[in-house]
Amino acid sequence: MKEISPSSLPKLAECALFEGAGGTSSAAERGTAVDVAIRNLISAQDNVTFIGEDSSAIAYGVEELTRLAKGSFIETREEYLAMAVPGLSKLGTADAVCKAEKWVADIKTGQVRNYREQLAAYALACMEDNFDTSWTAHVVYVDQKMIRSYDFTYEEAQQITKRTIDRATSAEARPTPSEYCSWCKHYNNCNAIVRQAESAIALIPDVTGNSIDAIRQRILATAESMGAFAKEWKLAEKEIAEPVLGHLKTRLENGDEVPGWKLTSMSGRKFVEIEAIAKASQNITKETLILAMGGKLSEKSYLELCANNGVEPDTTAIKAGAPTTQLRQTKIK
To answer: Are 57 and 142 in contact (CB under 8 A)?
Structure first.
């Protein structure tokens, strides 16, 4: 029988045949370390250490969970955070629970992703344990300094969890390409991914009298052909072209010959460090030094500067540049 954990539910909601590839990564190890630091700070355990450049993310996590608790006790000890979710064979572990305020929270590092199914399962487990009919679940994205919250009734959390489990255990389950494909143990031989990559490579047929303009016009002929090309080509670029180019570079670095390719060396950008900057700025004002170094800070760097120096940030001074647009692939139902 397929073992399913709460943390795998968002992936299974995207592809019913997802199975984690196992192992770990530097990003995952960092996430674990940040989680532990935040939980230990809240529970006031000994040997709490900040992790260098992650101090801002850790401080944000502590501050936001404390704010959400409104003075009530927050359980962050791992041994008391096991989540027994009805219908799941594996226990999950949340990062924080506040029974008085009826919420469960999970701390996330890295980019913002969907964790709704995982949090629905945690909320369901909390309602089961506390004989309650509603619960709130928070995802605390400490790198982006944002929180996404979900209010679940018992029926809603149960329905979301059951629907994902049923889909993942169905005999009719089929693979569906998603952003989690490279994390799956079936990735290399998954017929959906292989077929999509093959389609991308063969997307432009060999036609007598072809020209660049003719090829382009065939792709642009309809919204469907344009969308299909972008979808297939994007996958082929990421999963085939980029790894091949990386391997090609490695071969050249090892002294192999690859017809039509060579390595060229570019000089690194020149720079000075703290000692030289301090010496050069002895007789100038702070404003002149700031202008010499660009005159601006990102919002993240500004907030970190304020936090590290015990200064209350002036949020009214934070400005936003002109909005940009990005292509985003959507599901076709």
So the answer is: yes
